[in-house]
Amino acid sequence: MAIVARLFRDACGGRLRHRKLVFGIAVGVSQFLLIVTLIIACHNTAINTSTNNINNCIQKYEQNTDYFPTKIKITHAIGLTVEYYKHYKVVTIKNPWQNAKTTFKYALVQCGTPTPKGFNQAQVITVPINSIVSLSTTHLPHLAKLGVVDKLIGISNSKQVNTREVVERIKAGKVTQVGNNANVDIEKLLELNPDLVTTFGTGDSQTDNYAKLTEAGLKVGINAEYMEDTPLGRSEWLKFTALFFNKEEQAEKIFQEITHKYEQVSQKVKSVKNRPTVFVGFNFKGTWFMPGGKSYVAKYLADAGANYLWSDNKFSGSLPLSFEVVLERAANADYWLNFSQSWLSLQDLLAEDNRYADFKAVKTGNLYNNNARVNESGGNDYWEGGISNPDTVLSDLSKILHPEILLNHKLFYYHKISK
């Protein structure tokens, strides 16, 4: 039977055709029949495995077949569009970074079908992909929500990760750290040979890595979620990730649920008469960067029932202000939110700058920061999972500003700074 076991192992390893099998007198008829049975079983298993490994490829292309019966609709994100054709879909990134003069376009072609004309090789990506490297932690919750964390083989920095399913995969040694921005390790990426690398751009050729990745022959997807001016717009980039996995149906259901929960909370808050005054940020090396009135932060605060003191501003980016300008407007504000991640107590805040004591919010203790979920290496889940879960962030803010509305909600990303 040792001979049988060895032959079965060799056959299943695909090496049977390279061996000359000689059956001597020692191998009886019954053993020979058993070998044949095992080889047939192994062959059948190999066929099934092969079918799984061809990445859901179409075996026989039918020109008139719609290979994407479920289609996503973009309802909140303004920087992302998708057009469906029968066997491919065209994804366009309209605003990849601030003041961008270029767009990115990708043709996602169903495996086993012909490549459409009019696209260069870098733009054509076969779907569904079977492996991915993510160079931003903000993309990781998408993979968890879509149930495809098992396809993740590389990330930029494992220490910053908070997404539980990804942390488990890192601990299991199944994810490689490849660096980020200008320091990304191209050689390591080429060894991994992923079907897709997701990254982001800022428009700075010195730090952006997408050009370098593309030149190396890697398939690159630019995710521009951070350019969206609304929380739901940022969250909807889940659908961008879903397109590469043909997970449209799942993404639509997930985002509909997020949207429903978000709108439920905002509707409850609309009835409040008292809207407490709020300011955010902190003085950093002489400059206080205050989110503009058209930013996603301002949208969060408006939907949470706040009177944001810079809501009248028409800018979507950050306003560089002096300490004195902020103090003049926010000295009597009811709440101060979203300040330095390193401040864990009132003493930390005042040790940084004793002028902070002049704010009413400091005197009353209405200080709440978005660093309740920080891992041991300093990775803040607010900037990772929070982007994918705007309904939870909004619930936190509404609980802080109007605790009587969401009685059963417990703060998740936010916490009150102790004295």
- Unreliable stretches (pLDDT < 50, length at least 5) are 1-53
Subunit organisation of the chains: single chain
Overall geometry comes to globular
- How would you characterize the largest beta sheet? 5 strands, parallel
- The spatial strand order of the largest sheet comes to 7-6-5-8-9
CATH topology of the largest domain: Rossmann fold
Question: Per DSSP, what share of the residues sits in E-state strands of 2 or more residues?
Answer: 15-25%
Count of domains: 3
Based on the coordinates given, report the CATH architecture of the largest domain: 3-Layer(aba) Sandwich
Annotation, overall tally of beta strands: 17
In short:
The protein has 419 residues and is of the alpha/beta class. It has helices spanning 2-12, 29-53, 140-146, 164-171, 186-192, 210-215, 231-235, 238-245, 248-270, 296-303, 323-330, 346-352, 360-364, 385-388, 390-401; strands at 80-84, 88-93, 104-110, 124-127, 132-134, 152-155, 176-177, 196-199, 220-222, 277-280, 283-284, 287-291, 307-308, 318-321, 335-337, 367-369, 415-416.
Provide an overview of this structure.
This protein has helices spanning 2-12, 29-53, 140-146, 164-171, 186-192, 210-215, 231-235, 238-245, 248-270, 296-303, 323-330, 346-352, 360-364, 385-388, 390-401; strands at residues 80-84, 88-93, 104-110, 124-127, 132-134, 152-155, 176-177, 196-199, 220-222, 277-280, 283-284, 287-291, 307-308, 318-321, 335-337, 367-369, 415-416. By secondary structure, the chain is an alpha/beta fold. It starts with a helix and ends with a strand. Helix 6 (210-215) links the parallel strand 8 and strand 9 (220-222). It has three domains: 2-53; 80-258, Nitrogenase molybdenum iron protein domain (Rossmann fold, 3-Layer(aba) Sandwich); 271-416, Nitrogenase molybdenum iron protein domain (Rossmann fold, 3-Layer(aba) Sandwich), CATH 3.40.50.1980. The strands form four sheets. It has a five-stranded parallel sheet with strand order 7-6-5-8-9. Strands 13-10-15-16-17 form a five-stranded mixed sheet. Strands 1-2-3-4 form a four-stranded mixed sheet.
